[in-house]
Structures are given as C-alpha cells and as structure tokens.
Amino acid sequence: MVARAVHPLDRFLQQRMQEGNISATALVFTFFCDVVTQHDGEIWLGSIIHALSPLPVSERLTRTAAFRLQQDDWLQSHKQGRRSYYQLTPTGQNYYKRAANRIYAGKQPDWDGHWTLLFTSMVPESKRDALRRGLLWQGYGRLASSVYALPHDQRPALDQLLSELDAGDNIVAMQAHADDAEALRKLVLSHWKLDELRRRYKAFTSHYSKALKALNHRQPASAHSMFLLRILLIHEYRKILLSDPELPAAMLPTDWDGYAARLLTGDIYRLLAGTSTEWASQELLNADGFLPSGGDILKTRFAQ
Question: What pLDDT does 304 receive?
Fold first, then answer.
C-alpha cells in the first residue's frame, strides 16, 4: 500500500509549531479570541483538545493551558455534568476587543498630526507592569521611563484600561502637536526598535508566503488544517503587531515591511474564514450542542 503524501499545509503547520517557539497557553488564548468569540463565546474543553490535536499540543498541555488562563483571569469555566465549559472573563473580553481593533484592521488609520502623551510616574509600582503591557498592546510607544506616546487619540480604550487597573487618578494625559515634524520624527525613531520589528515582519512574511502557496496546492487542504492555519496566522501576526506602535506613514520607510505583513495576513485570512468557520460549527461543541454559525463580524475583518 502506498502511503498518502502529507499535504504541504500540514507540513507547514508542523514546522511552524516546531520552529516558532509557540506556547500552548498563548495558542489556546488566540483560539478563544479569534474563534470562540464568534460562536457565542463558550466551548467545551474536549472540543479545544479536539481542535488542537493535529498540532504537537497534547491533551495534557491543553488542559494545563486552560487552567493557567483561568488562574490568570483570562478564562472562566463552569461544569455541566462531568464536562467543563470555558469562556473569556470580562478582562479577557476587554483585551480581545481592544486588540481586535488593531489586529483585524484592513489598513492603518489616517493621521492628523496629533499625539496622545501619557505621564505615568504617579502610578504605583504594583500596577506598572500591567499598565506598560496594556499600553504597548494599544500601540503606545515609550519615550522615557514614565512617558508614553501614541500617534492617535483612542481615549475610550485608554479609559477602559485605566478603569480595570484603577489607575485613572495616577495618569496625566495630554494631546500634543509638534512644531518641528522632522525633529519629532528623529526623536521617535531613536526610541522605537524599528530594525527588530522589520526583521520580525520579514520573517513572518517569508513563512506565511509558504502557507499561501500551500493553500493553492492542486490537492485541497482539509478544513481542519485550514482552521489550524487561521489560528497560527493570527497568533503569530498578533505577537508582532501588538509590539508595533504603528507609526504614521510619514515616519516610516515607504517599503515598511509591516504593510506587506498586513496585506498577506488579510489575504490568507479571507481565504480561510468561510471554511474554518463552517468546520468549527460542525465539529466543536458548547453546552447546547454544536457551536452556532460564526457572526457577521468575520466579514468585516481585514476589510479592504
């Protein structure tokens, strides 16, 4: 009997898991944010195990990941009979909504020349790490030890973060406009590690160009494999994007690698969305049965 050839997409998935240093905990969290939120938000633990099983993520690792995310207040669970069902906590939901505004944007927002400046020296030591992480996820860059800058005004998202940390009274926020745009550009570029970002974006584009080629293989990939590619794609893109301040185009090289990475991610995601959503609705369970169909929001992700 002739062994069936491994599909190029399955080969790609295994290679990325081995080479990408991807933790099971982070992957499960991406699974909830990208997929479960679009299917009424709750899922049976056994379905998480089933969904990730073709990857080198064992049942034990998946259970441990869910437990850790629950301990860190990202997931919450309830039992029905002998089965455990999980969903994002309010903290996890808020993170997802803030991050989704950046991750699934079809293009970078226009810039009117204004900046939001935050002065955080009065924030208690116990809250500084959480604040720093939350601000970086929203795109703020660090100009000094207690000064953060964002080339947009995203006050609702900022207010939500400060409310969660109970730090609103410890922050001074200002709107600013530079008199000397070139001097500001030099200051900003001296504080952001664009060379490292560019390297990461280039590597991402190189890897996922191979995934796009695998999707166009003469033999169709399985729906399950396409579902897994969707999770890995968003997981690896998110890791880079949320460390990128997304500086205005006027401050970036015309051939900035982040642009190519966004276009590639959108192209692949749109190819995967329909099939992967249908697979989830036919294979994965919540307390009421199979997951309901994905929401219309998928049609707006990476809209051009």
Answer: 66
Task: Report the distance separating Cα 20 and Cα 237, nearest Å.
Answer: 12
Residues in the chain: 304
d(CA 52, CA 56): 8
Around 78, how many Cα atoms within 13 Å sit in the side-chain half-sphere?
7
Strand-strand pairing, 147-150 and 289-290: unpaired
pLDDT in tens, 120-175: 999 989 988 989 888 887 888 888 888 988 887 778 888 888 888 888 888 898 88
> Quick one: pLDDT band at residue 239, thresholds 50, 70, 90?
very high
Distance CA 230, CA 137 (A): 21
Q: Name residue 34's amino acid.
A: D
- pLDDT of 1: 44
**Run of H or E including 27:** helix 24-34
Residue 95 tokens read as 């993170």
- From the number of C-beta atoms within 10 Å of its C-beta (0-12, 13-18, 19+), residue 277 rates as buried
C-alpha closest to that of 245 among 73, 160, 118: 118
- Answer yes or no: is pLDDT of 3 > 60: no
What pLDDT was estimated at residue 191? 74
CA–CA gap between residue 17 and residue 4 (Å, rounded)? 22
- Residues sharing a CB contact under 8 Å with residue 65, sequence separation 6 or more, in sequence order: 23, 24, 25, 27, 28, 29
